[in-house]
Write a structure and sequence with these properties.
By secondary structure, this protein is an alpha+beta fold. The chain folds into three domains: 5-230; 231-337; 348-496, Alpha-Beta Plaits, CATH 3.30.70.270. It has helices spanning 5-33, 45-54, 70-109, 118-126, 130-151, 154-170, 175-189, 197-269, 274-338, 348-364, 379-386, 388-405, 433-444, 472-488; strands spanning 369-376, 411-416, 419-425, 448-450, 453-455, 459-465, 494-496. Bound molecules: guanosine-5'-triphosphate. Residues 342, 375-380, 383, 388, 391-392, 395, 417-418, 487, 491 line the site of guanosine-5'-triphosphate (GTP).
Length: 497
């Protein structure tokens, strides 16, 4: 991969997008300055300008069908073709870079010391890279959005919003980028004025580039660190293996020398005079002495090698320990962030994440998905009569009962205060009331005892199944409406809407 040109390409791409953005932002000013246009106090100047540019409603001064501001229109078209060119080049280089990164990660995965996070990283790298996967459709949406500014086709606008929402659903960026994408999602859900669509598309393109770049930086840094560690270990191992091989060769020579000396002694002892024999023996004994001292050196080298291998082994164990500590810490931090500390069921953050995942799953394959809101009845009276600690205890016990009563695949979260949410997956719509009414009964049967008094606590429930055309918000609102009806109908009951 050409390491230098890739970031340059991204910078260029961002620069082009920024230019486009500036052009877009400049449109209302130009419209305001244009003497041919009446002043647009209602902010519709941009739309009129678009119409002028793309010829659907020519201004009285311009010849029919010709853009009134060819400079601006040309400039936009030029920027778009530059953008398209950059996209192709960047996508190509990104793909090459991605493949190399994936290859490196797969090779490292084969190492017995590869940290446990590596398979997840490899999986991430194997899924279509967000950058080139989403950029082109977004660019198409952008072009479509520009066209829609002049045509005012409501149906097309709705479809474009829907397409953008689908693309957003597939994006999975965290941090600031994720937050801003979420805001754009909300704006799109509110069915935008067509004029706002082009800048929204451009911002999405910028965010996708920014998010992909950050993700790539993370994974590259992670792999580089991993590589460094493994390379260090590999060097030491190679050194040790070479030393081991040299030792084996030296020993073979040494053994052959020793055998030669002993053979020579044997040969001289057989059939030689006493004096010559003694001299020969002395000579050979000196030879054996030399061999023995070399033998001792070899033993010292072997001992040093052993120590080095032991140090290496200890280091590997330490690394493994560190990796598993790190993973444990991460897991427990993640869990803490998602668990409500009082009731030990999932919190609102976890609920939002889960709702999003389940909703996406449901959109792809609409298996019945039930959202139930539960609210403890007259909970204020429990607090007022028995104190907040008693109230807390009641919340904990009810949460435990909920957790223990639903299926493992279902999901229980504290929605806030004395309200809980249960998500049930793949339920039978006809039999939905059964498990929910059973939940109601189980909670009412919890044997609470505060200040020696036996207390019955009940809950009201509002449930709903996701329907065609629903958003998470609309489904939650319906469940809330059902809960409201359950409360109004006398509490301790279930209403399904
Ligand atoms: N002990 C305790 N009380 C809480 C907690 N969170 C909310 N509450 C209390 O829950 C009570 C909710 O009261 P309301 O909203 O008036 O509702 P309610 O008394 O349950 O009446 P209905 O919902 O109409 O049946 C308030 O007294 C809150 O202080 C908590 O974490 N611990």
């Amino acid at each position: 991969m050409n390491k230098n040109s890739d970031p340059m390409m991204l910078q260029d791409l961002v620069a082009v997008i920024t230019e486009l953005q500036t052009l877009l932002n400049g449109l209302p000013d130009q419209a305001a300055r244009d003497p041919a246009l009446p002043e647009q106090a209602d902010g519709r100047g941009l739309l009129v300008q678009w119409q002028k540019l793309f010829g659907s409603q020519p201004s009285p001064d311009a010849p029919a069908g010709e853009p009134a501001e060819p400079g601006l229109a040309d400039s936009l078209h030029r920027q778009l073709s530059r953008l398209r060119r950059f996209h192709h080049q960047a996508a190509h280089q990104q793909q090459q870079g991605g493949e190399q990164l994936l290859q490196a990660a797969r090779e490292l995965q084969a190492s017995p010391y590869a940290p446990p996070q590596l398979p997840a990283l490899v999986h991430d790298l194997e899924t279509p890279g967000n950058f080139f996967y989403y950029l082109w459709p977004l660019l198409e949406c952008y072009q479509q959005a520009i066209g829609l500014c002049s045509t005012q086709q409501e149906q097309d606008q709705r479809e474009l919003c829907q397409r953008l929402l689908q693309l957003i659903d597939e994006l999975d960026y965290g941090g600031e980028v994720g937050r801003e994408i979420g805001e754009i999602q909300q704006q799109l859900l509110q069915h935008n004025d067509p004029e706002t669509l082009p800048p929204l598309c451009l911002r999405l393109i910028e965010l996708v580039i920014q998010g992909s770049r950050t993700e790539r930086q993370h994974s590259t840094r992670f792999l580089a660190r991993l590589n460094e560690g493994l390379e260090g270990m590999q060097d030491q191992f190679s050194c040790s293996v070479n030393e081991g091989r040299a030792l084996v060769c030296d020993r073979q020579v040494h053994d052959a020398d020793l055998a030669g000396e002993l053979n020579a002694i044997g040969a001289h002892l057989a059939g030689h005079e006493q004096t010559r024999l003694t001299r020969e023996i002395e000579l050979r004994m000196n030879g054996i002495q030399r061999i023995l001292s070399r033998h001792e050196q070899l033993q010292q080298r072997e001992a040093a090698l052993l120590t080095r291998l032991q140090t290496l082994e200890t280091r590997v164990c330490e690394l493994k320990q560190q990796a598993s500590d790190y993973r444990r810490r991460l897991t427990s931090q993640n869990e803490k962030l998602l668990i409500d500390s009082l009731t030990q069921v999932y919190n609102r953050t976890a609920l939002n994440e889960r709702l999003k995942t389940e909703f996406q799953r449901w959109q792809k394959s609409p298996q019945p998905l039930c959202i139930t809101l539960l609210d403890i009845d007259h909970f204020k009276q429990i607090n007022d009569k028995f104190g907040h600690l008693a109230g807390d205890k009641a919340l904990r016990l009810i949460a435990r009962t909920l957790r223990q009563s639903v299926k493992a695949s279902d999901f229980v979260a504290r929605f806030g205060g004395e309200e809980f949410v249960v998500l049930m997956l793949n339920v039978d719509p006809q039999l939905l009331h059964r498990p929910l009414e059973q939940l109601c009964r189980k909670i009412a049967a919890i044997p609470f005892r505060f200040k020696q008094e036996r207390v019955t606590i009940t809950v009201s429930m509002g449930a709903t199944l996701l329907r065609h055309g629903d958003t998470i918000t609309s489904a939650l609102e319906r469940a809330d409406q059902a809960l409201y009806r359950a409360k109004n109908a006398g509490r301790n009951q279930l209403v399904i809407l």
